[in-house]
């Protein structure tokens, strides 16, 4: 099991590096991850007896295709965005999606109810919306450096928590949600997030930015906390509908959401922190 997890992680890192070399490729990758993740989320809810309205949810992933497009992109996209602005376009897009979703309980009231609509909307916010902050971070100046703060912070926390937990973990926390989680593992993950970003900032930061090292410690601490909260949320959802994993796409890890649950929460925190730091 451990060997499979390690091999899957190595493959994932290689694919991530390949995608990060080009903004357009990265944009498509995030879009596909969003589609698969949302599909896993809706399928998981279906196993719990709910009926999310899937098509509007999937359509909500489309803006992720455009976030990372170059400003000099030609064709119809450039023409429209120059005329009305990207923010206006995306806001109008989500207004249409929301109205369509709400009209579902008007015209299909025998099939869907307000709970189904609410869960569909939660899926749209939980996955495409939170994933968009990964692309937004990649779009920043020196984004090829900052984007790794998200992945290193989340994955280091997860890795340190896992190994600390299986080594010295004894005190259970939230056993009704995730029986294997321990206080020792949680503390190990928190410390691991700080150490990992401190090392990354020290080794790579000098070549890209003059951010003082203590900011990496703060971002590491934030990642060490919010990453675990993201993991607990995902576990609570799975526990609520009585499933072990969101899927089996990634050997040793489960589905896309099982691998990205922490990243979903870390990405906005890193993006907003950098925004405050640089007044972006």
Using only CA atoms, what is the Rg?
A: 20 Å
Task: Write the element-wise H/E pattern from the N-terminal end onward.
Answer: HHHHHHHHHHH
Instruction: Quickly give the structural class.
Output: mainly alpha
Intertermini distance: 43 Å
Residue windows where pLDDT falls under 50 for at least 5 positions: 1-8, 70-84
DSSP helix fraction? over 70%
Quantity of strands, as a count: 0
Note the total helix count.
11
Estimate the mean pLDDT confidence.
80
Largest sheet: none
- Strand % is under 5%
Shape: flat
Can you offer a commentary on this structure?
With 280 residues, the chain is an all-alpha fold. The chain contains 11 helices and no strands.
Give a quick summary of the entry.
This protein has helices at residues 2-20, 23-47, 54-59, 63-67, 75-84, 86-107, 114-139, 143-168, 183-208, 213-241, 256-278.
